[in-house]
From TrEMBL:
This is DUF447 family protein. InterPro entries: DUF447_C, DUF447_N, Split_barrel_FMN-bd. SUPFAM superfamilies: FMN-binding split barrel. Residues 21-129, 139-191 form the DUF447 domain. Pfam families: DUF447_C (PF20766), DUF447_N (PF04289). It comes from Natronobacterium haloterrestre.
């Protein structure tokens, strides 16, 4: 795998971060497989991310102290990572346009509406840009990301299921009007992987 980024303790992110950047992270599980999951990375110095509940990502961060944060532009890959158990033999996904191997350090824990959360400091130690593309803006992709967030909250204390289902129907309408075939396929994965 080619490495266009920095190696060593002071590596940089392979792309600029702003706001909350939606990524897919892979973490090594006790079964020797790399578990893929959605992870929102909050820009800052250092960048942070929050895990909610007793997820595989949280457990693997505790066991391994690291993961591969990946920047993907395929909504199906994102939906599968966000809402299903998605495991691989290799840490870097074929769909990754760029990645950063990060050290993950727990910095804060708490509970919100009955759900435990844990905030992690993410420090890149190695990174690579694998593909450079001309960016396009597709409202359908954004709707898929928002649909995965809403679907992941169905049945969780502190959230109103009826309101979440209304949001999901709105996002489905956006995908139908403004998305392409990959976004439509991703939305079907959201339906398959959730109680929607």
């Amino acid at each position: 795998m080619s490495d266009d980024g920095d190696d060593g303790d002071d590596a940089d992110w392979p792309v600029p971060l702003s706001g909350v950047t939606e990524t897919v992270v892979t973490t090594l599980g006790p079964n020797g497989k790399w578990n893929a999951a959605a992870l929102g990375v909050f820009a800052g110095d250092p960048a942070t991310a929050t895990t909610w509940g007793s997820t595989r990502t949280r457990g693997n961060f505790h066991r391994q102290g690291e993961g591969y944060v990946q920047f993907v532009d395929d909504p199906v890959v994102f939906a599968d990572a966000a809402l299903s158990i998605d495991e691989y033999d290799d840490p870097v996904l074929e769909a990754a346009c760029a990645w950063a191997r990060v050290d993950a350090t727990s910095v804060e824990t708490g509970t919100d509406a009955g759900t435990e959360w844990e905030r992690w400091k993410l420090e890149p130690v190695e990174s690579a840009v694998l593909e450079r593309t001309v960016p396009t803006i597709d409202r359908g992709f954004g709707a898929v990301i928002e649909a995965t967030v809403a679907a992941s909250r169905l049945g969780v204390d502190g959230y109103d299921d009826d309101e979440l289902r209304d949001r999901l129907e709105y996002f489905a309408d956006v995908v139908d009007r403004a998305g392409g075939q990959r976004e439509r396929t991703a939305l079907e994965r959201v339906r398959t992987h959730s109680d929607w």
